[in-house]
Automatic annotation (TrEMBL):
Pathway(s): Carbohydrate acid metabolism
Similarity comment text for this entry: Belongs to the gluconokinase GntK/GntV family.
Protein known as: Gluconokinase
Alphabetical keyword list: ATP-binding, Kinase, Nucleotide-binding, Plasmid, Transferase
Principal EC category: transferase
E.C. numbers: 2.7.1.12
Keyword Kinase appears in the UniProt entry: yes
Record-linked SUPFAM superfamilies: P-loop containing nucleoside triphosphate hydrolases
Amino acid sequence: MIYIVMGVSGCGKSSIGQLLADKLDLAFYDGDDFHPQSNVEKMSSGIALNDQDRKPWLEAMAQHMLNWQQQGGAVLACSALKQSYRDILQSTLGEQVKFVYLKGSKALIGERLAARQGHFMAASLLDSQFNTLEAPEDAIIAPIELTPEQIVNQILKSIK
């Protein structure tokens, strides 16, 4: 199984994804590591990515997921904001992909982004992230107001 921890920038995808991977004894991958340099430069400049920017990035991760599944599964942190993005990510494995949506308010996530350092994603892009977000209907939903351990425990209960 490939678990994709999704949500807007600053919701905790990487932290929760790593904790979840540790609990499930699976490999963890961060979707940010798969962005081409042109995407990183664009986001660092405060310019939101468009669908054309995202498509090759999502397709590349879908191909990697085939290998990860053959190796026993993985947890991937990836924004996956639109259903069309999730469709691309699921295109190679179908039902062997499960989404975990980290849901939180714009105010809370804005606070987290303002405190975050060393990340290429500009906090000014939060509005565009929420504008792009199409909340999933078939995902495990985890509220981010909980502690990381509580969030992961809630996810684990939903998985089992």
